[in-house]
Dynein axonemal assembly factor 3
Amino acid sequence: MSAGRTVEGAGCVTWWGFGPARDLLSSDTHRERPHGELNILLVGSADPRHILKTITGLTDSDTLHVWVIENSMEVVARQLVLLYVSLLTPENMSLHKKTEVFLEVFGNSEIRKETEETLKHAASQLSLSITNTLFSDSDTHPCLDTSLLKFKERDELVRIFKLWERPPSVPASVRKVWDARVRQHLGTRYDSRQGCFDWDLTMKLHQSGCGVISKHQYVKWRESGVAFEMREGLYQTANQSLLSTRVFNHRGDRVAVRGYWGDIVSSPYLSFGIETENKDLLKKQNNQHVKTAQDISEVNVLALFESLSTRGSSLLNENEPNLSSSCCQSTNSLLTEEKTQKDPCASQTHTKPEQHPEQQTQVLDLLNVNGVKVKFLSPDSLSKLPLKNKYRNLFNTIYCSASMVHQLDSFLREITAPDASLIIELANFLLDLSKEQVSGFADKVKEIAEESGFTETHYQSSDVYAVFTQKQN
């Protein structure tokens, strides 16, 4: 398999992970679960699955700071939208409906009109909140923080959200865009694509332990990009959060093309739909799974949202006596940390805009998840973290995706806490790779980790992720 074709299958933009959600502080990743003030660094996680799963394992006395680095602002924007939907209060959207909307935005190239309205509203509110962080140093939402991003990166987020809120009047057909990717990937095999889809499912995904992914749903996703259809309705509206811009060289000129450049082979079922603690969902009849990956995804995401609701509270409700207090300002605006101490990773590239008198901070009713903060860092910040004292020996867990592992280096030992774990996503579910390439990637990951001062553990429960602990001096 050529490198070009391999890239075409997995895509050049990682919209979801190639492995299931993990509690990154559990006994699967640590000798003993840490407690107290906890810090996790996510490098290229692509979606909030690990954040939501890790929150479920926190005790009441734990506090969790999650630091997120992605390789593009389009992925950051999508992470923010998915977290926004996750934090909608039960009063604004029932847990079941929120689960459906989340999965549609997460894994469908086309969504229902009602879901599009939710996406537009989320984009609008996030755009306003990030604009507010450009004008105000006041604390805003206690759970989400984009203040460590550079001004130009926040400007780019606002531009992306406005594009989602007001997409082009004559958008390109997502189905045509998706089909073009499939044609390019399969080449001469396109006319026999049903057989190719079936082979990838039965001989690769099912052989790798993903038997709950049904043929009907997987083939439909491979054909159209629609993975989750939980309600009767028309899935015909483009999911703007899965569209991005890719620059091509055409006859010596650089041409930007907006389209779908993500995974068209492995599927979004991997994040929430292939594992469950409820063994009834894995039952078989006549050697066939009774439930599907969609069913399991729905159950798992609903459970994660129930846990969020238990730990969280509505900012509006808890602050009703004083709606003008700083903690009751826009929950879409993002917490600015250490205002008097600027981060070198977020060094500003231009002067801060002046405050406009009419600029107002809105109050939004999102959940305040007690003791949890998610902070977004600049895409180029990973190697710069050791330059700041506050990051030294800070992180209890560092997670890195398969697509970002090349950024890891010996500086990791400077930013990890004692007994920290390094978790790296392997290439098991990159279906275009041969067994030899998958094995070679795992060997390379081990080599990189050992050069960075980590040693492989023997208490991990799966081979989807490689788990390492810091070497003891």
In short: The longest strand covers residues 416-425. Residues 1-6, 319-359 have pLDDT under 50 and may be disordered. The chain has 14 helices and 16 strands. Residues 304 and 403 are 26 Å apart (CA to CA).
